Amino acid sequence: MSDFEDEMDVDSAPAQNNDVVFSAGASKGKRRRHPAMTSTILALARRIYGPSQVRQMVLELNASDDRGIDVVREQIKTFASTKQIFSMGGGGGGAKSSIAGYKLIILDEADAMTNTAQMALRRIMEKYTANTRFCIIANYAHKLSPALLSRCTRFRFSPLKEADIRQLVVKIVDEENVQIGAEAVDALVRLSKGDMRRALNVLQACHASSTFDSRSYYNFLFGPRAKTKQKGTPLRAPGAAKVPDSEIQRETITTETIYNCIAAPAPDAIQQIMATLLGTADVTSCLTTINSIKRLQGLALADVITALAEELAKLDVAPEVLITWLEGLAEIEHRVAGGGSEVLQTGAVVGVVRSGVELMSR
């Protein structure tokens, strides 16, 4: 954890506080659950209690599934009300630890719990504080009851730095012999947006997809497999021997492979859309260009709006022009997220950008 200490903010602890809240940092854009929050508390639990006692001393619940008051009254209360007779932690080399004498209850995604369940949880935290500690993990701290927050110390986790993600990705690529270009690694790190889990999932998906092609499928269906090396992993008949890895020729993962796996707009496509919107006064031509790129690359309008807003924000234009663009695109994204028609909202994107261009010419 020392490598990422600067990425975690700790609020000042209130008086007589024993419990903690892990929450994601207030970053811009959409926010997903930070994988490091759960990993951190589980690693600490194994260090405190040791592998032999962690199952008896730790109760982990996903509050997004077990979110009702019945879970609080039954599972949580039953676990918290029983006192542990052991007083030694298994991870500290047999040394006594005062913390190891407390039970630990981990509530993941606790912001999904109902208000009634949160109020019941507050009472349990007060009643069984002598032998139980709580760790509450949430994506949005404002969705938690103020009564719960006042009884906890907050730890805020920010997304990982690109340099840290790149270091781990390069290590995995070297150890697993993944064939990937340098530009593809840059795209993978950039599109992961601080989420190491997403980077690994995309890398694994791209590596798996590079080991099969249509020629192998054709040879399996219509003819015997050639004895020479061929690109891709051929399909095997039931009971057939596994093809050795030495006979599989894998394709190199490119930037295009990364963008296709994530279904994100490629930079050249966004540049083409932006050049058309900024340089073409014909609205029909702009609509045709955007719709054709969306159709050919299978893009969603929301992704196009996000990428387009990032590129427009880089332009050196007057503040009123930039405000017109960003405010209009934000309103369109809100309507798309609410179920608005992509056909109509695509036209709205053209109108917003062209309005800014006309404002520049005045």
Automatic annotation (TrEMBL):
Q: Key word Nucleus present in the record?
A: yes
Which parts of the chain are coiled coil?
A: none
Superkingdom of origin organism: Eukaryota
Q: Does the keyword Nucleotide-binding apply?
A: yes
Q: Which PANTHER family match?
A: REPLICATION FACTOR C / DNA POLYMERASE III GAMMA-TAU SUBUNIT (PTHR11669), REPLICATION FACTOR C SUBUNIT 5 (PTHR11669:SF9)
Q: Among the entry's GO cellular component annotations, what is one?
A: Ctf18 RFC-like complex
**Domain Replication factor C C-terminal: from-to ranges:** 265-351
Keywords, sorted A to Z: ATP-binding, DNA replication, Nucleotide-binding, Nucleus
Q: What is its main location?
A: nucleus
Ranked from the top, the taxonomy reads: Eukaryota, Fungi, Dikarya, Ascomycota, Pezizomycotina
What GO MF terms are annotated? ATP binding; DNA binding; DNA clamp loader activity
Q: Which family does it belong to?
A: Belongs to the activator 1 small subunits family.
- Xref: Gene3D superfamilies: 1.10.8.60, 1.20.272.10, P-loop containing nucleotide triphosphate hydrolases
- Where, subcellularly, is it found? Nucleus
Which Gene Ontology BP annotations are present? DNA repair; DNA strand elongation involved in DNA replication
Please report the name of this protein according to its UniProt entry: Replication factor C C-terminal domain-containing protein
